[in-house]
Amino acid sequence: MNRDSRIYVAGGETLLGAALRQRLCAGGFANLCGAPRDEPDLTSAGQVEDVFGEARPEYVFCAAGRSGGIGLNQASPAELILDNLLATAHVLDAAHRHGVTKLVYLASACVYPRKAPQPLRVESLMAGPLEATNAAYATAKLAGWQLCAAYRQQYGERFVTAIPANSFGPHDDFSPDGGHVIPALMRRMHEAKVRGEPQLAVWGTGMPRREFLASRDVADACVFVMQHYEGKQPINLGGGATLSIAEVAGAIAAVVGYRGRLWFDDSKPDGMMLKMLDATPLRRLGWRPSVDFRTALAETYAWFLQHAVKEGPEHVRAAV
Ligand code: GDP
């Protein structure tokens, strides 16, 4: 991939898609296909075909498909699995038929079996049952990896799968019930601060631990993988901060300035108790994260105040 290459980020409006577009532009890769506001409906084969036919991308990052937190996974598993299966199938098949030079497919850390040894190594993939709270979405992501593997095997395509740690940053889904833990708690704490609420419920026991990477670090790792990794096995994008949900909630409260009491609502699910990727292969190739967790939290809150809060309820808008 060089500065003149035609590059398409499928799912350019998602958390990771937006970070990728920004990283590519900042790195001088100016020949990006499409604009996020004109993003086709990737679940429509015809619309994906039109993009590839018109833009003829040489390099593709596939960040396509809906995703969300534990709440959305439980409320809408059918929507999540279908959206991801369709979007991934359409993008990968179009990339194959239109002769794309190389594609990086983004899976998710939830593809690992619930009881896989930690830190999570790619050898554990498909070696046990998935975590029940996100099995539908994870199955679609595993299917995406297998599609890449099948196109590699049958047609020799350079389709590479990358598995990012839990990511967060600007352009995330800040909905209180559907978002991942960081954006969802950020919105809920912001609203609790504005309303002067004395306490706030954090879902689960607060004890699960997650590895977090800033979306701009994930984007940087994806570009690195496009340039330096050709392997058949997926590659973990990790090396970030591993924190308990209680620590995450405390860090968000500090950034938001919420001084109420945090309590843990253990009627809500914890999901996996630990999710931490073994990032040794990526580190050996020469990549490591560079964004500090709290700096990235502050950037995310600044973006939320500027953009996402506008979509919030009237009283929250009025208070900003
Ligand atoms: P996961 O990594 O797939 O489990 O996805 P999430 O980001 O949704 O959740 C991570 C952990 O944060 C789980 O243990 C949740 O119970 C916990 N959590 C605490 N408060 C919240 C919240 O407001 N929203 C979400 N999504 N998770 C929360």
What proportion of the residues is helical, as a percent range? 40-55%
Largest sheet features: 5 strands, parallel
What count of helical segments does DSSP give? 11
Mean pLDDT: 95
Helices and strands in order, then pairings?
Layout: E1 7-10, H1 15-26, H2 45-55, E2 59-62, H3 70-75, H4 77-97, E3 102-106, H5 135-155, E4 159-164, E5 166-168, H6 181-195, E6 199-203, E7 209-214, H7 215-228, E8 235-237, E9 241-244, H8 245-256, E10 261-265, E11 274-275, H9 280-285, H10 293-306, H11 314-319
Parallel strand pairs: 1-2, 2-3, 3-4, 4-8, 5-7, 6-10, 7-11
Antiparallel strand pairs: 7-9
Helix pairs in contact: 1-7, 2-4, 4-5, 6-8, 6-10, 8-10
Would you mind describing this structure in some detail?
This protein has 320 residues and is of the alpha/beta class. 43% of the residues lie in helices and 15% in strands. The strands form 3 sheets. Strands 1-2-3-4-8 form a 5-stranded parallel beta sheet, with helices on both faces. Strands 5, 7, 9 and 11 form a 4-stranded mixed beta sheet that branches. Strand 3, helix 5 and strand 4 form a beta-alpha-beta unit. Helix 4 runs parallel beside helix 5 and helix 8 packs across helix 10. The longest helix is centred in the first third of the chain and has 21 residues. The C terminus is likely disordered. The chain binds guanosine-5'-diphosphate (GDP). Guanosine-5'-diphosphate binds next to helix 3, helix 6 and strand 6.
